[in-house]
Amino acid sequence: MNTDDIIKKVAGLGVPGIILLVLAISSAGSNAAIVAALTSAGGPFGIIGGIGLLGLTGLVGDSLSGIGLEAILKGVYSERKKTDSLRLLLKEIQDLPISDELKIKLKDHLNADTTNSESVEEPRTVEIVEE
User: What whole-number distance in Å separates Cα of residue 74 and Cα of residue 111?
Assistant: First the structure.
């Protein structure tokens, strides 16, 4: 079996296949280590929960790819901006393991939302009437 065959098989599995591949590589191909990793990932549900988590990861990955990571992140950070400070969110975005281009887009999106949401009220005229 050559490298291209392995790549095609893992690609057919999608995100869960990639996670399983990383588990296999990090455990040096030991079946016991892969089972232990799946069992710990499954929490109280054991290895069945770990396998279920791989399936759930595949579903989430498919839905994210349909919508787009950028749109999802923009929506999440727009919602979080309602409760968290802009400074905290900008720091968090800077620390994300994403491309610099996407970081800039997210920061610009948050800054644009901030300037649009701040409405400037006209000064009011107050008339004092003495009686």
Answer: 11
